[in-house]
Amino acid sequence: MSSVADVAKIAAAVAVGGLAAASAYMVLGLRPGSQLFGRALVAPRKPEEIALTFDDGPNPTCTPYLLDLLGQHGVRATFFVIGQFAAQERALVRRAHDEGHLIANHTWTHPNLFRTDQRTTREELARTQAELAQITGAPARFFRPPYGLRRAATLTIARELGMTPVTWNLIGNDWTSLTAEGIADRVRTLAARNTERGFATNLVLHDGDHRTLTGDRSRTLAAVGLLLPELVQTRRFVRLDAWESDDHS
Fold it and tell me: Which end of the chain is more exposed for a tag (fewer CB within 10 A), N or C?
């Protein structure tokens, strides 16, 4: 997506008020690889690799079990945490960090940054950066916009705060009514498609629910339990920082 017509579509979506978020998601969120508003890390041409990432945590109900599961399989993941939840679950974030997982910024309250003014966007990101620095000893190096929604200023602010913007090329749809097996099947199919196209897989699942600290992610846990024994045999799991110097086209 890179034409003037695409920008016009977004502007038209904003003009109709209540439909703005949904329309913008159709244009941007479902095309997370778009570089229209600036460069964002998606996935390099390393089809044997997979970055397992989790959004919207930490979740005191789900995340500890997830960390146990990842540890059993020797997999390190990237956690895009919501700042206000991290502030409530500092020990859990510290545990993830200490066990070798990468902690990243997913804003303080999970707003739609396509519709958020620059001052609020900076506050959302900077406040989370400060919290994560207190917990882990360093600010986050990566940022993922909630819902994948962003604009040029969003990415500029993230970079000014020392972060690389990140999107994805596979999302598990684990917040929908899909069963654990349905989530796993979706991941298997789309990961194979990425491989066929010559790209690594940047997979988004959710260990939390942005609406509440203790959302039910039992189906995600079950799906991860199904997928890990298979994927560790065929893919090399990496944290997102393994791709910092790669071409993220």
Answer: C
C-alpha torsion sign, points 84, 88, 91, 92: negative
Q: What contacts 155, CB < 8 A, 6 or more positions away?
A: 37, 38, 39, 40, 165
pLDDT digits (tens, 9 = 90+) for 233-245: 999 999 999 998 8
Rounded to whole angstroms, how far apart are CA atoms 116 and 122?
Answer: 10
* 78: three-class secondary structure by DSSP: strand
Residues of the chain with pLDDT under 70: 1-32, 35-37, 247-249
Sequence ranges of the domains in the chain: 1-31, 41-243
**Per CATH, the architecture of 41-243 is what?**
Alpha-Beta Barrel (3.20)
What is the rounded CA–CA span in Å between residue 10 and residue 25?
10
Question: Residue 242 has what DSSP assignment?
Answer: G
Is residue 98 exposed (0-12), middle (13-18) or buried (19+ Cβ within 10 Å)?
exposed
Report pLDDT for 246: 75
Buried b (16+ CB within 10 A) or exposed e, 206-243: bbbbbeebebebebbbbbbbbbbeebeeebebbbbebb
d(CA 243, CA 238): 8
- Predicted local distance difference test score (pLDDT) of residue 37: 67
Q: How many CB atoms lie within 10 A of CB 122?
A: 18
Which positions are catalytic?
A: 55, 206
CA–CA gap between residue 35 and residue 39 (Å, rounded): 5
